[in-house]
Amino acid sequence: MNQPFTKQEKIRFKHVDYAGIVFYPRFLEMLNDLVEDWFEEALDRPFSKIHETNGIPTVDLKVQFKKAARLGEVLTKNLWVIRLGGSSINCGFNFLDEQGKTCLEGEVTLVNVEFIAGRDQIKSAPFNEQMKSKIEKYIM
């Protein structure tokens, strides 16, 4: 059975608000970091190379904040594929605290796009077969 892509992240002072809990936009930055790491480490497609000719924008995002995460805690961030389309990926994700309780969960849809006329326009572009086979390893 396939496994999710997993990374850990320590909650730092830069992530929290005055109450010492993660300020919600920082969770979204952590999610974007997870997606970026997945593309680089698991799919061998680092954003530094993707963005020369293509992009992978988020087109839909559903998030549920389940539990506060606090300064000093270490979160386990998981990402898996729910559905792989021709040029899109629908992924599930969750962030778990050190006791395995869910702090954040949701779904994100990403679309592979190519730049047209420099960067004036974009259009969806299908994943090649090699990329599809790498992504399929994360379907759960």
Strand content: 35-45%
Question: What would the average pLDDT be, to the nearest integer?
Answer: 95
Strand order of the largest sheet: 1-4-5-6-3
Instruction: Provide the structure class.
Output: alpha+beta
Report the helical percentage.
10-25%
Shape: globular
Tell me about the largest β-sheet: 5 strands, antiparallel
Radius of gyration: 16 Å
Question: What does this protein structure show overall?
Answer:
The protein is 24% helix and 39% strand. A hairpin with a 5-residue loop joins strand 5 (88-96) and strand 6 (102-111). The chain is an alpha+beta fold. The model has no long low-confidence stretch (mean pLDDT 95). The strands form 2 sheets. Strands 1-4-5-6-3 form a 5-stranded antiparallel sheet. A 3-stranded antiparallel sheet has the order 2-7-8.
Descriptive key words:
alpha+beta; five-stranded antiparallel beta sheet; 8 strands; 140 residues; 3 helices; three-stranded antiparallel beta sheet
Short description:
By secondary structure, the protein is an alpha+beta fold. It has helices spanning 24-42, 47-53, 129-136; strands spanning 5-10, 54-55, 58-65, 74-84, 88-96, 102-111, 113-116, 121-124.
